[in-house]
Amino acid sequence: MIDIQFGPQVCGDLTSAASREWLVPDGVGGYAMGTVAGLRTRRYHGLLVVPGETPASRRVGLVSLDPAVTLPSGARVRLGTHEWSSGDVDPRGFELLERFDLVDGLPRWRWRIGAVVIERELAMLPGRSCVAVVHRLVAGGPVRLELSAACTWRDAHGERRADGPTPQVEAVADGAVVEGAYRLAGPGWTPEGQWWLGAHHREEANRGLQPDEDLWYAGRFTGELERPGDTVSVRAWAGQLDEEPPPAAEIVATARRRNRQVVETARPADRVDATLALAADAFVVRTGGTAVDVVAGYPWFGAWSRDTMISYEGLFLCTGRADEGRELLRSYAATLSEGMLANTADTGRVEYNTVDGTLWFLHAVSRHVTVTGDTELGDELLPALRTVVDAHVAGTRYGIGVDPADGLLAQGAPGTALTWMDARVYGVPVTPRTGKPVEVNALWVNGLAGLAELTELAGQDAAELWRRHGQAIASFRDRYPAPGGWLHDVLDAPAPAYPLGGAALHDDDVLRPNQLLAWSLPFAPLEPDEPTLRRVAAGLLTPLGPRSLSPDSPEFVGRHRGGPAERDGGYHQGTVWPWLLGPYVDACRRGKMSVDDVFVGIEAHLTEYGLGSVSETADGLAPHTATGCPFQAWSVAELLRVRRRGQ
């Protein structure tokens, strides 16, 4: 894998070190997450974040373990780092960091206090909500190490305050149980019980959200480090509290072995490929310990079917996980209703609210059968896939249906945003894209052809599917080319002066990246030509991928910043989306254009934000600062997929 390591000039600079985040997933939807500096910059950061019934319903448990070293001289040096609502940063342990490494996906810190060097490693036990934190004396000593446990138990999307109930902490052997929800275990436990008031999260402040919370200092662990090699370790786990996990050092070794096996199974072609394969692993989880699913992004997303299906080939077929992928596709097929795939249960109920998620599902099944030769799965799912086409032809929810006049797929209903550009401000869609969106119809054409192939592989008659495909592709080629030299983004859209369902329609030729799917998909409706792709690239392409809107547009938003309304308003109005690099590269390759230099910026990005991973979004204007989730499934999956195809 690529080397991810930082010395004192990054570690000791709070702005630099606190803007680089690490993630250690547990494989069931929870995680440990923080920054190189050790500073918690988000409400979502913690050493034990526990999944609920869905991955998105996570709860924060163990917040931090703050080390303090008592030297032979009697001096006590604190190595933790916190920022407070007063603006103070105290303690300032980051100033003593001489190195940070991400080794096999696991973070390692190294503090130097004169001749004394202490190292910390952290890992989660694969398949269980359990974290192990190991501290090792590397040089110097003897010293005493104290580890102060800052705790909470709250929804990951909120805060907890001292004016509420005091957390219940029960002393048990080797530690304590907090709120009956998770257990801490380590040497020399001493209960304390005190509020730390006003812990500040600078990233939440930047997002216009409540940035402060209060933490409960539950107690401290204490151990002696007499000679180099000695360790002091703490474990924390949720779930079956009486089922004690393995020793901390064994958990670290187990996690390291597993991560190496994940990379080996993916058969990477180079170090970047290996890094992306391990990054992809973070998103594949077993919800409830059994069902395979995909976390769309850390730290705040759960499972979303559109993201899952866009990510499918990269996460499963490019990493040697086709068996798990097969299981996932079968379980998702069971959610089909009125020809639509369930989108998410993150909101607490199952929602059917996309026009494209189901079409991406058709694509994922087709790619699975094509890549693996698993025709048995194709045969099994074929009846369900046929119901998708039948329902779309007949018409289904939200005005989704095939226009018999041209065979293209239309969509839209008042107050809805059904494409992947689905942001809302105060409940109002920013980009409803009512009508016939270009990528939706590229996916429709692609889906019809893929389903026709699966039908023929099953020995059945696909003539009607091919007929519909022929009509749609002819209409696509006739209607989507726009006067500007690219493709219309939406056909038959309501004219701005008319409400939805009004008399006037128009074709929207704003320059957006959605048209890339018209050239990139396996059964794309158009053959790419270099002049058109160069026009699209000139207006949209950045080092981290295409913008969602051309800077020439009056609605362009160059900085994805501010409170929720400002951020959502600019989410698809110029913000860069790295996942779109996949369709762009595919289109260029089909057009015989070189893409050798396209990956330079995004590969460098692997060490800039979410370490070893790819962000959800970035600013549309230079320097294209990353925004959104630092670890995003479709961003990783699409980069992995198109790099793999070019090797």
Verbal overview:
The protein has 647 residues and is an alpha+beta fold. The chain folds into two domains: 4-259, Beta-galactosidase, Chain A, domain 5, CATH 2.70.98; 267-645, Glycosyltransferase. It is 30% helix and 26% strand. The chain has 17 helices and 34 strands. The strands form ten sheets. Strands 1-9-10-11-12-19-16-15-14 form a nine-stranded antiparallel sheet. Strands 2, 3, 4, 5, 6, 13, 17 and 18 form an eight-stranded antiparallel sheet that branches. Strand 11 (116-124) and strand 12 form a beta hairpin. Helix 6 (305-317) runs parallel beside helix 17. The longest helix has 20 residues, at 375-394. It is elongated, with a radius of gyration of 26 Å. It starts with a strand and ends with a helix. This is Amylo-alpha-1,6-glucosidase. Pfam families: GDE_C (PF06202), GDE_N (PF12439). Residues 279-641 form the Glycogen debranching enzyme C-terminal domain.
Q: Which helices and strands occur, and which strands form pairs?
A:
Layout: E1 5-6, H1 8-11, H2 14-18, E2 21-25, E3 31-35, E4 46-50, E5 59-70, E6 76-78, E7 81-83, E8 89-92, E9 97-103, E10 106-113, E11 116-124, E12 130-139, E13 143-155, E14 169-172, E15 175-178, E16 182-185, E17 190-200, H3 202-206, E18 212-225, E19 231-238, H4 248-266, H5 271-281, E20 284-287, E21 291-294, E22 297-298, H6 305-317, H7 322-333, H8 357-372, H9 375-394, E23 401-402, E24 409-410, E25 424-425, E26 428-429, E27 436-437, H10 438-457, H11 463-479, E28 490-494, E29 505-508, H12 517-520, H13 530-540, E30 541-542, E31 545-546, H14 564-570, H15 581-590, H16 600-604, E32 617-618, E33 626-627, E34 631-632, H17 633-645
Helix pairs in contact: 4-5, 5-17, 6-7, 6-8, 6-17, 7-8, 8-9, 8-10, 9-10, 10-11, 15-17
